[in-house]
Design goal:
The complex is a heterodimer of chains A (56) and B (462).
Chain A (H helix, E strand, L loop, with lengths): L13 H29 L1 H8 L5
Chain B lengths: L5 E3 L9 E6 L2 E7 L3 H9 L2 H7 L6 E4 L9 E7 L13 H20 L2 E3 L7 E4 L2 E4 L5 E3 L9 H18 L4 H6 L6 H7 L8 H16 L13 H17 L12 H5 L3 H17 L5 E5 L5 H8 L3 E6 L2 H14 L4 E5 L19 H4 L2 E6 L3 H7 L4 H9 L2 E8 L5 H7 L11 H8 L3 E8 L6 E7 L3
Parallel strand pairs in B: 10-11, 10-13, 11-12, 13-14
Antiparallel strand pairs in B: 1-2, 2-3, 3-5, 4-5, 6-9, 7-8, 14-16, 15-16
Helix pairs in contact in B: 3-4, 3-8, 4-7, 6-7, 15-17
């Protein structure tokens, strides 16, 4: 077991809210990634053109 | 007993892992035995080296000797010395924003080495040779994936709160950080933010929901049984990063930021002033440090910096300092520290016993101070007697270059419109007698294209 030096008060409920927040964010980022993936399918062609021109 | 006295730094009392102390004018950091395991891992994991290589963390030398004679001693570090300490309530919006993003970047980098930041305060960050740098090498501890980030609330109160409030109010609010020097409480931020911010998912989670739970839930719920993981923490960091990146302070035409545009129409005035200062700089060589008081957008600070003089560029106008900050960041200027200071009320000493954070006056002692087109703002704009202004400047510098703006000057006429002229004592002879209490006049010149005079003064030996 690690010996943690807790000298700042994490705040009552701050750990709990962090767990909830992180869970909500998991869902938010999951859908954002799907959206980004779909978007990337449609924008793939212009991106390749950019790749051909590394100095741009 | 050692003959030399060891001073514990008054701001270094909170964290039991170690402390800062001064011996023979050199600053050291002691690592205590209690923190041995974390500190050894910080070095062995390569985390320290990686962060120093990126210029994100201040480098240190290890001193093998126990300088304090303390029983708790494990190691002594000698960190690279900073030329000037500034505090977040003196920083412009973009500087605080960059400090927040640096903190998150360091957190991510340390996670990759199996470590985590155990605190997240802007006081751990300083402006050093043209960059923001993290200065507390005892902020890193071994990462336990199952435990949420202990400094999450501290981060939200110290970085996110002031940035969000400034963003939504469209006002530079760095003075709120002076009032709430330990971070703006979430409940305060929540109540001051516009109602619509509840519909922004990230602001809702980090502020509104966070504030609600901080109040409602008893401390027994410290998350011992809340499941957490590295993936969850990285999501939290990504959300904070995304939110902060989007925050900005709208550019506004500030009182003085168009001063140079306007003054540039009087090119000979500015050019002549520049020539005089350059000539005097040669005369009083060597000048290593300077403070440009009322720097505006930093024209003359840049002149100092180009001569390799470490310069504090200070102005009361947050927009000017923000613009200067962005400019020196872009150009990689190393010699300027841009800070917001109102000389009618420079930053006070605050914190425990009023010793934790020094006042601006106590922190500032430079070879040369520049006070160009400043005195009338203090004497006429703020009704401060000339004697008090002289007393302020003599506390800051050995040499002073000061511009006297006579009453018949256009700028003063403008200041006096709609204001009763009660400033009968504002005369060049009174200015001189006030300053000659502390200084001797070495040079005097009238600036071309104006009726203004500029003086080079040297502080009298005590």
């Amino acid at each position: 077991m690690l010996h943690h030096l807790v000298y700042i008060d994490p705040g009552s409920g701050s750990f709990l809210v962090q767990a909830i927040t992180a869970a909500v964010l998991g869902v938010v980022f999951f859908f954002r990634n799907i959206r980004m993936y779909i978007k990337s399918i449609f924008t793939r062609t212009p991106k390749k053109q950019d790749d051909n021109n590394p100095s741009a | 007993m050692p003959a030399t006295i060891i001073h514990h730094h008054p701001s270094s009392y909170r964290d039991p892992s170690g402390f800062i102390f001064e011996k023979n004018g050199i600053l050291y950091r002691q690592v205590n035995t209690i923190f041995k395991e974390h500190f050894d891992f910080f070095i062995a994991s390569g985390c320290y080296e990686k962060l120093v290589k990126k210029d994100w963390l201040i480098a240190h030398e290890t001193v093998t000797e126990n300088l304090t004679g303390d029983e708790q001693w494990y190691a002594t570090l000698k960190p690279e010395r900073l030329s000037f300490i500034s505090y977040p309530y003196e920083w412009s919006f973009d500087m605080l924003k960059d400090a927040a993003l640096l903190t998150l970047a360091i957190l991510k980098e340390s996670l990759a080495s199996g470590m985590i930041l155990k605190d997240a305060t802007p006081y751990n960050i300083q402006w050093h040779t043209g960059k923001l740098v993290f200065i507390d090498s005892l902020s890193f501890e071994k990462y336990d994936e199952t435990v949420p980030w202990i400094a999450y609330r501290q981060f939200c109160e110290n970085f996110l709160s002031p940035l969000l409030l400034a963003h939504y109010s469209r006002m530079p609010l760095q003075e709120m950080m002076l009032a709430y020097s330990e971070g703006i409480p979430l409940a305060v931020t929540k109540s001051l933010l516009p109602w619509r911010t509840k519909f922004s998912i990230h602001t809702y989670l980090h502020i509104h929901l966070h504030a609600k739970y901080s109040i409602k839930n008893p401390s027994s719920q410290t998350g011992k049984n809340t499941a957490f993981s590295k993936k969850k923490l990285l999501n939290l960091v990504a959300s904070l990063e995304g939110l902060i990146t989007k925050l900005k302070l709208p550019e506004s035409k500030s009182t003085w930021s168009d001063y140079y545009d306007e003054a540039s129409q009087r090119t000979d005035y500015l050019e002549h002033k520049r020539t005089i200062i350059q000539r005097w700089l040669e005369k009083i060589k060597p000048v290593a440090t300077a403070a440009d008081l009322g720097a505006n957008t930093g024209e003359f600070s840049k002149l100092m910096a180009s001569k390799n003089i470490q310069t504090i560029a200070s102005d009361f106008d947050p927009n000017c300092i923000n613009a200067l900050y962005n400019e020196i960041k872009k150009n990689g200027e190393k010699n300027i520290v841009p800070i917001i200071i109102d000389f009618s009320k420079p930053s006070p000493a605050i914190g425990v016993n009023n010793e934790e954070r020094d006042s601006f006056i106590k922190r500032t002692h430079v070879d040369l101070a520049l006070a160009l087109a400043l005195i009338h703002h203090l004497a006429i704009g703020k009704n401060i007697p000339l004697e008090k202004i002289a007393d302020l400047f003599q506390k800051l510098c050995n040499y002073l270059i000061i511009e006297f703006v006579p009453k018949q000057d256009e700028k003063i006429k403008l200041m006096l419109t709609g204001k009763k002229d009660i400033y009968t004592a504002y005369k060049e002879e009174n200015f001189l007698s006030a300053f000659q209490q502390y200084f001797s006049v070495l040079e005097k010149e009238t600036i071309a294209g104006s009726e203004r005079t500029i003086y080079l003064m040297k502080k009298n030996e005590a």
